[in-house]
User: Fold Purple acid phosphatase from Esox lucius.
Amino acid sequence: MGSVGAVFVLLSLALLSVLGVPPIGTQPEQVHISYPGFPGSMEITWTTFNETDESTVEYGLWGGRVFELTAKGNTTLFVDGGSEGRHMYIHRVTLTNLRPASAYVYHCGSEAGWSDVFAFTALNESCGWSPRFAIYGDMGNENPQSLARLQKETQVGMYDAILHVGDFAYDLHEDNGRIGDEFMRQIQSIAAYVPYMTCPGNHESAYNFSNYKNRFSMPGRTEGLWYSWNVGSAHIISISTEIYFFLDYGLDLIFKQYEWLKKDLEEANRPENRAERPWIITMGHRPMYCSNNDKDDCTQFQSYVCTALLSVCLLTGVDLELWAHEHTYERLWPVYGYKVFNGSMDQPYVNPRAPVHIITGSAGCREKHDPFVPNPRDWSAFRSTDYGYTRMQVYNTTHLYLEQVSDDQYGKVIDSIWVVKEKHGFSAWFSST
Ligand SMILES: *[C@@H]1O[C@H](CO)[C@@H](O)[C@H](O)[C@H]1NC(C)=O
Ligand SMILES: *[C@@H]1O[C@H](CO)[C@@H](O)[C@H](O)[C@H]1NC(C)=O
Ligand SMILES: *[C@@H]1O[C@H](CO)[C@@H](O)[C@H](O)[C@H]1NC(C)=O
Ligand SMILES: *[C@@H]1O[C@H](CO)[C@@H](O)[C@H](O)[C@H]1NC(C)=O
Ligand SMILES: *[C@@H]1O[C@H](CO)[C@@H](O)[C@H](O)[C@H]1NC(C)=O
Ligand SMILES: *[C@@H]1O[C@H](CO)[C@@H](O)[C@H](O)[C@H]1NC(C)=O
Ligand SMILES: [Fe+2]
Assistant:
């Protein structure tokens, strides 16, 4: 380099030290994984702020030769709807032919920058497997109180998948999407290691849910709005309750989702499918019922969500319905249309005669807690305003376990139930007392 060049470099460095060094826009960040819904697969998603020539995942079996396998995928340009119109490149790579229940090590990126090294375990595809979940909604970038505990528990291998039941970051689109970036960096410590499965909440509504649709990668071709997947003896359905509230984005979505849901439920409920995966579990952001002291839909008699979904869930014998939105935990007795249908007085969840509902929206966010009404209706079984999250294990075709962790009480389990069903489907509602 000649002296003129050297002077130029020095000048440039001086200028940079004044202006601040620009970040390397091709460096991968916000790495997270999700299950694409077919055996032996896992999808890796990440962000760069500049375009890269390719989107590559290098991976290999844990303990095997490092990065001996390579998979390539696609990039989409996501332009945030805010005034700055920020550009983000979302990279998606689907890994296939993974060996079930085996651990893999991976990194992602391109020749212009690689991520840290992460690991995940491919799902065990057996119907006899007993997957373990952490479930919560309403976790923000500010005051995400449960996050540290979830990070540690995920990294020590307590969960096979995470279900985040809507409301992220508060909000993904804020500060021209920078809050979304921060949030996706925060959850990388969980979401880069186990499938992070989502549904949209009201906080994702900006610009027609575009931050949600672009940042996550869920099964199906519905931009993560509604989809289903199988794991162990469970069929898990994720829906958008938000289509009933943001009608400006399209009334047709209500009919499209309903038609899809009805078909999906009928398929899952076919005798041969139900025999293999008898637990039908739904997740959606806004609950059908709740006993919170606010004006939300679930506090109303005949809520929109109830009106829309009640009968189809009953007719196909949905076993368990997971909700969030209220920043509390509430467990309901088996309930249908405001009436309690316990299995029996002594063992309400043994052969329950209506779906079981759990509301778990207390992971922690800047809006803090929601209060309860002092005297709940008779379908309310247990309530807590502690920050925390739910654990679930689908043991086998007859037994499913749920427990609630209080982060305020340093991880104490404050509630737990076994749901036991010798029979699933519509006829199960009439089978016992
Ligand atoms: C990287 O992205 C930024 C922001 O979009 C843009 O200003 C810059 O020109 C890009 N750099 C390259 C080398 O493409
Ligand atoms: C990438 O795009 C191609 C062509 O559209 C498609 O076939 C492929 O499935 C995509 N891959 C991923 C990982 O989405
Ligand atoms: C998957 O789970 C089943 C049922 O628990 C078990 O028998 C099987 O060994 C597991 N598969 C692997 C590869 O670990
Ligand atoms: C909002 O998004 C949905 C799903 O992508 C789309 O079908 C609908 O047309 C969009 N609505 C508007 C008003 O752009
Ligand atoms: C349901 O079972 C619980 C627990 O035994 C009991 O407290 C409640 O009264 C029962 N509700 C009805 C309507 O039977
Ligand atoms: C299912 O798991 C429960 C709890 O471990 C056990 O008591 C029950 O016998 C199992 N049932 C079947 C059908 O394997
Ligand atoms: Fe919400």
Remarks:
- The chain has two domains: 29-121, 132-430.
